[in-house]
Amino acid sequence: MSSDICNLNTESIENNLFAYSYHSKYLKKLHNKNFDKEDVHYISTYSSFVGEVYENVIYELLLQYAVSNHSITKFVLKGPHQNGHKNEKNGLLIDKNDQIVYKSGYKDVSEFDGLFFTKDELWFVESTIVKATASLKKRLKKKKALLKLLFPDLTIRALIILSHGVMGANTFPSYCTVWVTKQLEDTNLISKLIESNKQSLKSFVATKDKKLIQTKDIKIFIFKYFETLSWILKKTRENKINIVDIDFLNTEKIKQYFDIFSKLYIGFIELDEFKKLYHSFDLENIDENKIIVTIEKNKDGFLLIYYAKQLKGKLKKIEILNNKELKISDKDPKGFTASETKFMKYIWRSYHKFYSKDILNINNFLKTKEKKIYLLSDKKMGGVVNLPIFEIKYLHSKIDISRYDALIFTSKNGVFSLNSFDDEWKKIPSFAISHKTANCIKKNEGNLRYTGKNGHGDIFAKELISLLREKKVLYIKASKVVSNLIDILKENSILCDELITYETICKTYKKENKPPKNSIIILSSPSTLNCFLDIFDWDESYTAVAIGKTTAKFIPDFIEYKIAKHTSLESCIKLAKTI
Fold first, then answer.
1. Averaged pLDDT score across all residues of the chain
2. Which residues make Cβ contacts (< 8 Å) with residue 439, sequence separation at least 6?
3. Do 373-389+507-576 and 402-501 have matching folds?
4. Are 63 and 57 in contact (CB under 8 A)?
5. Beta strands across the sheet bearing 74-76
6. Dist CA 126 CA 265 (whole Å)
7. Which helix (H) or strand (E) segment is 417 a member of?
8. Which residues touch 15 (CB under 8 Å, ≥6 apart)?
9. What is the pTM (predicted TM-score) of this model?
10. Please, where are the H alpha helices in 425-484?
């Protein structure tokens, strides 16, 4: 960030600020009436105007920054710098307010405070003086998804420019770069801009540089907003087996469309059928007697949201709460949803109609789809959500490993922890409980002598009896173990010492990190279960999948569980996907 941007240095750009259009007419009236400046209404109106000025100050300073920055190859002009707009139907355009917008079917899909290119990236700019950034973060997802459709070969990044005192500046997604400037407090400049209504009062200075471009010169892949909604409806309803193709809605391409549209239209249900489901619904005079059915995606899966337009009335959003109560709210008559529902009115065909039994079936199907599989480790595997539940702490020792004839390992952590402070172990024959532990020994150049056949601690111990008789053995273990391996070996006259080389420490999580209802929890050891129960309460809707019989022994009676066929995470995940 340049010093001029950081400090909002307007000395070189002040004249240009008077060439922009501002929504100052109402604020000027309040000024002329000597309106109470402590009034909440005045403060809100004034703050909105200052936000416009701040955006223009940032743009002017950013334009200067772009000209001198070698990594920026193209910078898109707007405001008084561009050469006018046309009311075109589709494309990346300059609108009547001289702002950069993407328009589809004459509808502004998204507006950008700035756009610039580097070698293989496209950056969009968002600048605001608003202190709370939650709503801004929601808009970013839509803007990024849209630009990825328009520029599929470029990496999309965001430059977020905020005013000092903002909250949550460190919580933006990784594709965002955040700059924080000083606050715009030049009251003299702001007052002159409020009173000015003639652009000719100040002389505008145009910047000339080959990297400054017009929107009309940018090549894009056209995205047709309303036609895409219609195409998604067609694809969602053409499945011959399921009335709604949820697998299609789960594809990566459609996930991107969810970020743009927020909801997708899947059909309609007539009023009398809707009342069979929700008897308390009492709105009458519904346009064409149709309740529109949409599907939204949230962090837990999909949910159905309904819309109804009353004749000569407002568009209503109908949400179903957990207790089957209805939450009905008004939608903006000039918003996207109003435009979308108006468009869909001409798309509906008789085969898009749902009956009450269809809605029940869809909701039941969505509930089964909502089940997420949680793996309580950071090991990346397909189809699961990682929730590392504990950390491994290595415990170093000065033991003389060379005194032993054999080493026993029952986990990879035993190998990693011993290897962290001793190299002599690699010379001593090692006995591994499973193929994964054996592979870890080999990768660390250990002397693998035997691999267990079953993967269970007690059975492994019995396999070792004939192999370790008359040998001096060292068992590499955690601070807490649940098998009877040592006892079984000692009962069979095998001299076996124990060396604790690591311990598990439960992590801490906030309540919002708790898995949602109907989740499937994979338990790879008793310690993962213990940590999970220490951190979260077990929800009765959960199902556990135990990696083996040893782990299953430690599962309390109130937990419903299944045991994987093989003692591997792959087997656990395979079983979890069938539940």
1. 86
2. none
3. yes
4. no
5. 176-181, 155-163, 121-128, 114-117, 74-76, 212-213
6. 30
7. helix 412-419
8. 202, 203, 204, 205
9. 0.62
10. 435-443, 457-468
Q: Are 399 and 513 in contact (CB under 8 A)?
A: no
Between the two ends of the chain, the Cα-to-Cα distance in Å is 52
* Cα torsion 67, 71, 74, 80: sign: negative
For 60, list phi and psi in degrees, rounded to 5.
Answer: -60, -45
| CB neighbour list of residue 467: distance below 8 Å, 6 or more residues apart | 431, 449, 450
Backbone region of residue 91 per phi and psi (left: phi > 0; alpha: psi in -120 to 50; beta: other values): left
The CATH architecture annotation of domain 402-501 reads 3-Layer(aba) Sandwich (3.40)
Q: How far is CA 248 from CA 35, 236, 368, in A?
A: 57, 7, 16
Closest alpha carbon to 379 in 369, 370, 389, 371 = 389
Average pLDDT, integer, range 174-194:
86
Q: What is the mean pLDDT of residues 542-554?
A: 89
Closest CA relative to residue 21, chosen from 173, 193, 145, 171: 193
**CA–CA dist 97, 408 (Å, integer):** 74
pLDDT for 470: 85
Beta bridge partners of 522: 375, 545
List the domain boundaries for the chain: 3-217, 231-368, 373-389+507-576, 402-501
Displacement of CA 63 from its chain's centroid (Å)? 32
At 207, the amino acid letter reads T
pLDDT of residue 316: 92
Q: Does the domain at residues 373-389+507-576 carry the CATH identifier 3.40.50.10090?
A: yes
- Residue 122, phi then psi, degrees to nearest 5: -120, 125
